[in-house]
Task: structure prediction
Amino acid sequence: MHFTTRQDIEAPLDFVDAYLMEFDHFERMAMRRGAEVERTDRLRSPGPGMAWRLRFAYRGKPRRMTVRLEELQPGSLLVYGLESPSLDGQMRVELIALSPRRSRITVMTEVRPRTLAARLLLQSMRLARGRLQRRLDVTAGRLAGLIEERWRAEQRSRG
Result:
């Protein structure tokens, strides 16, 4: 199952890229939403091989997932591998500079079932595809808004 969303952001590409590389920030965001996040790698600087173990509730059931940074091209691409006992997949985050002060972020996710129960889950998700796509669009819009807010705050503080 594939989902794609695209957001234009009123901030330069290098700023957006730096924001997306603040992995500690995203760990804290997930924890504030009730997920348990554990970093499982020992890398000192951001790069392929970074990994996190997540535990969270989805549809009233506890879920586990491992997220691994598979590819990193600064300023243009982040690719994450997603693994759980019943699903696996990939999330690609592509960045494009539209102008010196405007960027576009495209997030593509693909999820594949590993078990029969996961096939049924994905089938029910297909039936609710429109609602899930809107939720993804809203979430990506919020992320774009957070990046823009931080960019404006940084510009104000510079004078």
Summary: Residues 66 and 83 are 5 Å apart (CA to CA). The chain has a mean pLDDT of 94. Strands lie at 2-9, 36-39, 51-58, 61-73, 77-83, 87-99, 102-113.
